[in-house]
Specification:
Blueprint lengths: L1 H17 L9 E5 L5 H9 L4 E4 L2 H14 L4 E4 L8 H7 L2 E5 L2 H13 L5 E5 L13 H14 L4 E5 L9 H13 L4 E3 L6 H6 L4 E4 L1 H4 L4
Parallel strand pairs: 1-2, 1-8, 2-3, 3-4, 4-5, 5-6, 6-7
This protein binds pyridoxal-5'-phosphate.
The site of pyridoxal-5'-phosphate has 13 residues, from strand 8 and helix 9.
């Protein structure tokens, strides 16, 4: 399992990095650990993975407080949709919240950040495929929304994130996300999953989120 899958993935990351002038010097690998039990996560930590992504606040609250206490260097990312009634819990637990995607959520985050001493880094999720079932701000609204979050609410926005449509080429979505990051001066670009992380790296991802390729298919 992980001890077998991880080294070849690192090789593929380095090759993709070396093959493109757009590639970032530093690529953060976030292990998407939704549905994985403690033994799988421990194996990933033992293999050297230092960042993890969870989709649901409730699942993360069961899994992560003990793991974080045992491994203080781990950075925990929220990569799934965030409901406003879970904002305080998310701020308390996560180091990075990647799915800021609407004004109501941004406002709730700004209030939670004023009340708590913890200040997670925030990314804006962009719905690059404009899919109605997916979260994320529409691409044409992204610039205004980023300005609102940063300038009006003073939120610590550091990057953008996307989950492109399945079964279509992802490169145009990665290019769109990268352009939004660049023109807004945001340094982090979280894009690329098991099927397309090399494409994402060649298009300038600073962070990739890998689940199945690391852990195997989810049950
Ligand atoms: C599950 C998930 C991933 C990882 O997907 P894989 O295809 O298993 O690599 C990445 N990002 C998000 C938002 C996810 O929900």
């Amino acid at each position: 399992m992980l001890t077998a899958t991880f080294p070849p993935i690192l090789t593929r990351i380095h090759r993709a990095q070396a093959s493109s002038s757009l590639a970032s010097d530093h690529i953060r690998l976030v292990a998407a650990s939704k549905g994985q039990g403690l033994s799988q996560v421990e194996a990933a930590i033992a293999a050297g993975i230092t960042a993890f992504g969870e989709n649901r606040v409730q699942e993360a609250e069961h899994k992560w407080p003990a793991l974080k206490a045992a491994h203080p260097a781990i950075r925990l990312h929220l990569i799934g949709p965030l409901q406003t009634n879970k904002v305080a819990d998310a701020v308390a637990l996560f180091d990075v919240i990647e799915t800021v995607d609407r004004p109501k959520l941004a406002l709730a985050l700004s209030e939670a950040l004023m009340r708590q001493a913890k200040h997670p880094t925030l990314y804006i999720q962009v719905n690059t495929g404009e899919e109605s079932q997916k979260s994320g701000i529409a691409p044409k609204e992204a610039d205004d929304f980023i300005r609102y979050c940063r300038d009006t609410l003073h939120l610590p926005i550091r990057g953008v994130m996307c989950v492109p449509p399945v079964d279509f080429p992802t490169a145009p979505h990665f290019a769109l996300l990268r352009a939004i990051a660049l023109r807004n001066g945001l340094e982090e670009c979280s894009m690329g999953m098991s099927e397309d992380f090399e494409t994402a790296i060649r298009m300038g991802a600073t962070e990739i989120r890998l689940g199945r390729i690391l852990f195997g298919e989810r049950a």
